[in-house]
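User: Fold this one for me? It's NmrA family protein.
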Amino acid sequence: MAIPTILVFGATGKIGGALLDALLPDHAAGRVKLVAAVRRPDAAPAFEARGIEARLIDLDLAETRGLEPLVGALRGVDRVFLLTGYDVKMIAQSKAAIDAARAAGASQIVHLGVHASPDTTIVHFAWHQVVEAYLDRSGVDATHLRPTSFMQNLPLLLQVGGGEPGVLRHYIGDAQTSWIDTGDIARVAAVVLREPKAHAGRAYGLGTEAASMPEIAALIAAVTGLPWRYEAREPAEFLRAMTALGADPVYMACVRNVFERTRNGSLKDAADTFDTVQRVTGRAPITLREYVEKNRAVFSYEGRPGDRRIETA
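Assistant: Here's what I get for NmrA family protein.
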């Protein structure tokens, strides 16, 4: 039997990188062949040094060059992990990737979306649902992963919020929201990519623990022994800060709306949690306490918030 080839979009990010790490033992043992999709040639050597093939793929170029170059880049790929950028272009990017994967003969696509109710009116949540609907009609076996808020976003609040050490700023008031470690998302994705038939046609909610920002600030204080506190800020401040850092204003306006509706209680599914990680991987998920303990240095006033660089998951 031929060794299946798995291509990972978003390989240079937190989730894609963790997925490659999770699948690397399978790659080394010859059970799968890993391919990292990169948008810049200078990103390729880091993967090649680990024995992972890197392919230069820019989904935005499909609009000007047509689908054939993308089909060629995906030739020989059996399974695809699809994670696209956090802006309005994600719809066209995802469609191009799905069309090219189908034309190239791929048999499975695992799509990273977002957890939301089926009738959501949050715009960027709806974008993900449109992509899912298109993927379901593609004829390729599909599995949808639907995470909630990433624990890895907590350190970013220190930079975006611009607060002094010991102050955790957020924009949802005292409301609870659901969290997941990006490593747990990657572990679920790895299982699904190893066993495509067992997970075809399924959608997995991925949120493992609900907590409010005051509770998280208290947890950070307990772990570090430092006097952390929570400071609630206005969602409009978040939008201004993120757009100033170069983020897509349309997408970030949607995030602002999520914060507004989480704060006022109208986003009923904001704190939903699931047993998916335990059920699919057989391992307990990483808790918020474990995440803070692992990243104690980040929350121990080591370096100013402005020294940190924002990365998307």
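One thing worth pointing out: The chain has two domains: 5-150+181-206, 152-176+209-271+284-307.
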